[in-house]
Amino acid sequence: MLYQRSSQLFAEAEKVIPGGVNSPVRAFKAVGGTPIFVKSAKGAYLFDEDGNKLIDYINSWGPMILGHAFEPVVDAVIERAKLGTSFGMPTALETEIAALAVSMVPNIDKIRFVNSGTEACMSAIRLARGFTKRDKIIKFAGCYHGHSDSFLIQAGSGAITFGAPNSPGVTQGTAKDTLLAKYNDIENVKAVFEANKNEIAAIIIEPVAGNMGCIPPSKGFLEAIRTLCDESGTLFIFDEVMTGFRLAKGGAQELFNIKADIVTFGKVIGGGLPVGAFAARNEIMNYLAPLGPVYQAGTLSGNPLAMAAGLEMLKALNADAQIFERLEQKTAYLEKGIAEKLTANKVKFTINRVGSMISVHFDEAPVTDFQSASRGDNETFKKFFHGLLQEGIYIAPSAYETWFITDALTYEDLDFTINAVDKIAKQL
Ligand SMILES: *Cc1c(COP(=O)(O)O)cnc(C)c1O
Is 426 among the catalytic positions? Predict the structure, then answer.
């Protein structure tokens, strides 16, 4: 496959956009080469500016769980746009999607919509701090909660890839209120709690980590944190920007049967438009302006086009009783196929998977936290990435990213991918 026009477009973009991209991972720095410029997409496929067709395993980093250009979403956006694209005033549509989201997700009474996952997480910790009247938060090494200052303390994928875990521009003052813990290490979490008794407003976690590859929580880990939170008046925040409406209707809370105090959303909830949200029980949500003292706002929050897209997406997921099982089966099939081919070709690897989130690591040791995720062989990953790309298969351009399986993928697509892995594995 040739990428001439993409290279040319990238060169033009670099002149007027820093690094040629509006989000760093898109620049292909971790894998080399130049990024692919997309012209259109439909179902499981991307069509690029050079006329190549690619099977898409990233799906806009998650939102296109039912495939690209999903008709109910596209139609709703077109119809809504004709009625006006933004008012800065309430619409009935906002209540409709809020009510549906609240009915699908356990343990939440109210939800507020914002424009990105970053905004959702940033607002969630402000709310937690206001509610508990405490300053400190705990986050886990390798977990990503967007690019707001408080979270750029050894953040996930993007920052790891660029070797800048602590971004310049984040002040010491901000950093001192973010405490770091190790994922899947409850003794470490206990020690952090112990050293900061009654000072911790919230602990925020990706209930399945997805920004250092896909890392499931070890058995009992989330439950043990729940207990620590209950004992110390700390709020437990599930960042479900990735897992929400993906692992189950009710996300990780439903999958693991654990109650979070605040939940954040993004990605799937917007159906491919810029949407984030955070939600909690009444007692906490009523602490937000205009009811309560914690301020949070947005000119385009609850935007009608974005809400129309999100509503159609949630409706489709809610109406399909088999969707999450079907996604699980497709992803398990892919996992098994890839594992067989890599094993047959004597490649050292680990595959992690939860539902439709999957990652391939080029190291034999189990990948359970940021440290073990960092041990993977990046040179092998680069060859794997470019090998797949040549076969017309697009995976994330970084070894620290999860693949997001879409229901639009057919078993023929999966078999094609597994056979491509066999071919590439012979050269690894
Ligand atoms: C993508 C992501 C975010 C940030 O969302 P944006 O919409 O990119 O700001 C936050 N948390 C998690 C877990 C994510 O995967």
Answer: no
Query: Which atom of ligand 1 is nearest to 143's Cα?
Result: 13
Give me the domains of the chain, ranges plus CATH numbers.
4-69+322-425 (3.90.1150.10), 71-319 (3.40.640.10)
Burial of 303: CB neighbours in 10 Å, binned 0-12, 13-18, 19+: buried
pLDDT tens-digit profile, the chain (428 residues): 789 999 999 999 999 999 999 999 999 999 999 999 999 999 999 999 999 999 999 999 999 999 999 999 999 999 999 999 999 999 999 999 999 999 999 999 999 999 999 999 999 999 999 999 999 999 999 999 999 999 988 644 544 433 334 688 888 888 889 999 999 999 999 999 999 989 999 999 999 999 999 999 999 999 999 999 999 999 999 999 999 999 999 999 999 999 999 999 999 999 999 999 999 999 999 999 999 999 999 999 999 999 999 999 999 999 999 999 999 999 999 999 999 999 999 999 999 999 999 999 999 999 999 999 999 899 999 999 999 999 999 999 998 899 999 999 999 999 999 999 999 999 99
Atom of ligand 1 nearest to the CA of 276: 7
Q: Can you give the pTM of this predicted structure?
A: 0.96
Q: Beta strands 178-181 and 136-140: pairing type?
A: parallel
Pocket test for ligand 1, best of 263, 267, 300, 401 (most atoms within 8 A of CB): 267
Q: Is 139 a catalytic residue?
A: no
* Span from the CA of 329 to the centroid of ligand 1 (angstroms): 25
CA distance 147 to 277: 16
Selected catalytic residue, list 48, 56, 239, 261: 239
Which atom in ligand 1 lies closest to the alpha carbon of residue 206? Answer: 13
**If residue 390 lies in a helix (H) or strand (E), which one and from where to where?**
helix 378-390
Interval between CA 146 and ligand 1 midpoint (Å): 5
> Contact 359/401 with Cβ under 8 angstroms?
yes
How far is it, in rounded angstroms, from Cα 74 to Cα 222? 37
Is the Cα torsion angle 299, 305, 311, 314 positive or negative in sign?
A: negative
